[in-house]
Amino acid sequence: MRKILMLLLVIFSISCSKRDLPVVQEKILNPSFEVIKAPEILNPNNTYNISIRVKDNEGIDSLSLVISDKVNQETILSATLYDDGAAVYPNDGDVIAFDGIFSQNILWNPSDESRQNFVFSINVISSEAIDVEPLELEILSLGNIAPQISNIQFPDVLENGFELLDIAATVTDSNGVDDIKRVEYVGKRGGIAHFEGVIESVTETNSEQNRVVFKKSIGSTFSIGLVGEYELEFVGVDQSGLKSAPISKTVNIENSAPVLSNVLTPVQVERPVEGGVKFLITVDVADKQSIGDIKHVRLKWRKPDGTFSANSPFDLYDNGLPFNDDLTGWNEGYRGDLEANDGVYSITGIFDYQNDLGNYFLTFYAEDFAGNESDQIVKVITLTQAESGSVVKVKSPY
After folding, report:
1. Ramachandran area for residue 156 (φ above 0: left; ψ -120 to 50: alpha; else beta)
2. Quick one: pLDDT band at residue 7, thresholds 50, 70, 90?
3. pLDDT band at residue 196, thresholds of 50, 70 and 90?
4. What stretches of 317-393 adopt beta strand conformation (E)?
5. Which residues contact 233 (CB under 8 A, 6 or more apart)?
6. Which element (helix H / strand E) includes 296?
């Protein structure tokens, strides 16, 4: 028996020695970089945000940034990018913590402000051994020289209801066309700004002459709320936000008053025995600068005794909001308009059993944002006594 047990023990030992032990698989990290934000051009004395997304970022604590001169390969600045949501490092410019995007703000202030290229080298910082090819960005640095506007194209007069036309500005920059960002303009009267805009679409680039032509199409809506003579100033803006000296010209903007037509309202209404009766009042309104120039459309409500309703004048609306019999939302524009933005302005008229019989004079007029007032249109509604009729439970603001 003892011999048998020893034999079994030997066999068991041999079998165990030949058995394969489980192999622990080593996770291979393969991080890769994606540029989320980085400057295209650097100008001295400006702060820039660098944000880099790292895919497969497990075990990565932060990113290192080394900036060197491309020619001399001398390091001029080192920084660290963090993924902390600006909680640990409040000035790093990171937005969301632990989203895989590492960020840092850098103040660009090189000792040599001449035109030259710099290499931004970005790599991982980790407690683990991670082999990854650094990300390298080549970025041009320019001296902070302001652009210049050499020509502007803008009519002397913007005619009332003008068709689509192009405005343009030509900008030069000794730092090169890549440093020219946009053109801004502002319209002033008496030194006070009344409107402003931006021209960003590039239609022509001449690298040899460092020249860019910006162009923008405008239509009659440009003149909404504007009328008369304005001093128009144009400035060119570079990538750092530095602006050129302004170039000015005088422009006269025409803007005519709104026009009312097709007033629809009943000629005669029967006064109910009890309760009230309601009816829709509408008027078509047009403006050569579009209905976007309409400030308000109003109705003055004069009673047979020559006095006006306590709430007169009333506003008509083109908002598509219904009328509610209990006047819910009346002050918010719920006055019975059928369709929004179709140029038809509406209000619900109401007579109740207590209103005086006789002629009611309704005077319609409109005003635009430039202060022009339309011609008035007067309609008369005669209120007569009804012998019978159904009762409509409706409140009246009149």
Report:
1. alpha
2. very low
3. very high
4. 344-352, 358-368, 377-385
5. 185, 186, 187, 188, 246, 247, 248
6. strand 294-302
Which positions ≥6 away from 136 have C-beta within 8 Å? 119, 120, 121, 122
Residue 342 carries which side chain, given as an amino acid letter? D
Closest CA to 154 of 202, 85, 222: 222
User: What is the average pLDDT across 199-224?
Assistant: 94
| Separation between Cα atoms, residue 172 and residue 151, nearest integer Å | 10
Within 10 A of 7 (CB to CB), how many other CB atoms are there?
10
Distance of alpha carbon 334 from alpha carbon 339, whole angstroms: 12
Phi, psi of 12 (to 5 degrees): -65, -40
User: Judging by beta carbons within 10 Å of its beta carbon (0-12, 13-18, 19+), is residue 352 exposed, middle or buried?
Assistant: middle
Largest CA distance in the chain: 134
Query: By the 8 A CB rule, do 331 and 222 touch?
Result: no
Residue 9, classed as helix, strand or coil, is helix
Please state, as a whole number, how many other Cβ atoms lie within 10 Å of the Cβ of residue 314. 20
Going by C-beta distance under 8 Å and a sequence separation of 6 or more, which residues neighbour residue 11? none
Task: Check: CB of residue 316 under 8 Å from CB of residue 335.
Answer: yes
Eight-class DSSP state of 82: B
Rounded Cα distance, 118 and 174, in Å: 19
What DSSP assignment string belongs to 183-194?
EEEEEEETTEEE
273 pLDDT band, cuts 50/70/90, is confident
- pLDDT category at 31 given cuts 50, 70, 90 is confident
Instruction: Give dist(CA 43, CA 113) in Å, integer.
Output: 8
